Amino acid sequence: MNNHLTLELKTPEGNLGESIQAIWYAKAHLAGEQWLACDGATGVIFPVTGEVLLDDESLAHPYAFQQTSTHASKLSFSKGAQFCGIRFNPTVLPELKRNDHPLIATPSLCAIAEGLQDNASLAAFVALISRHFTNNKNINQSNKHSKHLIRNLIELTPLETAYQLAPLSQRQLERQVKEQCGVTPKYFERIYRVKLAKQAIKDNPEMSFAAIALECGFADQPHLIKEFKAIMHITPAKYRRLLKDSQTKQTKLILR
Q1: What is the CATH code for 5-132?
Q2: Prediction pTM value
Q3: Which of 25, 26, 79, 202 could form a disulfide with 122 if both were Cys (CB 3.0 to 4.6 A apart)?
């Protein structure tokens, strides 16, 4: 996330990977804040020690659901805070709820939170989640068309083409995605285009914004700036400066 935090992250495979895109553990060395980009996904955050706030709202123990956001969210934390999270793939959380999946049952989530009080680490967190995630063969069926559409959008397939590749009508897909994610396919397209631009800025520090706009499917540089600021709450130029400042601080620490 940033120099204030140590972040450990696992990308699950198998049954867990079908529903969960990331499991993470963070520990704050200093008080700070970080903007989290929206990606159309949902999650559960477990505050373990210290204070953790999302969009200036304190996250209460033992856990808090993170709903789909249409813009970046501000995560704030106190010095010494420890917190963990599950990040579900888009469309998955409503399906888990419909199937009364054991992972998101209140007793299971409370048991995970209690286990973290005894041992707050990524390995312990993954073990606690896996214990409650037994069999998912009956889930992710009614949302398979939505997932396929979103997967195409993640790969920057144009929205109209993504509709044509799906077996359902555009209206059916729009309704399903909106019901399951809270945002429209069109908004997903915007989210992932900005996400790609964010990665391009990180990977290519000297690349012009005009070139990044062209590479990431924006009409032009002003379109990139407008969309980036709307979703990330920061301009591409400021994001690039923050990355450079972070790298400079890390270099100074290495040289000491």
Answers
A1: 2.60.120.1030
A2: 0.77
A3: 25
